[in-house]
Specification:
The protein is of the alpha+beta class and 157 residues long. Helix content is 25%, strand content 26%. It contains three helices and nine strands. The strands form three sheets. It has a four-stranded mixed β-sheet with strand order 1-6-3-2, with no helix packed on it. Strands 7-8-9 form a three-stranded antiparallel β-sheet. A two-stranded antiparallel ribbon has the order 4-5.
């Protein structure tokens, strides 16, 4: 489920008629969106989820949640919640549970900038390990008929 305030302006939900039951809410669901090509940057900046998932839209003004992920999403994707360890696991990636008080925009942006800086430093170190510079490819425009005429090994058939 996803909060209506989190949807981009150009997204048009489809109408549905089904109920939703969560730990704190039982209500009819009237709209949903399809989530495609998702990335979970908290767990991996490179892995992408290629399956399409349907997310019901909720619009509770008192809710502090932006998105609620249920087993219908977590299980097929392979995300494991280890409550005894207070960790979230996805492939080789692990994320510790956080207290709600730790989840504010300022911390998120600082952590994101730190992660991007580390990634940039890593890419720069890879560049410095290269023994030669890779130059951009140069392509000339050719007419395909002219290219075919230059091919001596081809027979007209």
């Amino acid at each position: 489920m996803i909060h209506k305030r989190c949807l981009p302006a150009n997204v048009k939900p489809h109408k549905v008629k089904r109920g939703t039951i969560t730990a704190n809410l039982t209500s009819p669901m009237t709209e949903e969106v399809d989530l495609q090509h998702m990335m979970l940057p908290e767990l991996s900046r490179t892995l992408r989820i290629t399956d399409t998932f349907h997310a019901g839209i909720f619009n509770n003004p008192d809710s502090s949640y932006d998105i609620i992920l249920g087993n219908d999403f977590l299980c097929p994707v392979g995300i494991r919640l280890l409550s005894d360890l207070q960790e979230v696991h996805w492939h080789d990636n692990c994320l510790a549970y956080r207290k709600k008080s730790e989840l504010n925009a300022e911390n998120f942006y600082v952590e994101t900038l730190d992660a991007l800086a580390m990634e940039s430093e890593f890419e720069e170190s890879l560049d410095s390990m290269m023994s030669s510079t890779i130059k951009p490819a140069k392509y000339d425009v050719w007419n395909t008929d002219d290219v075919v005429k230059l091919q001596k090994h081809l027979n007209p058939q």
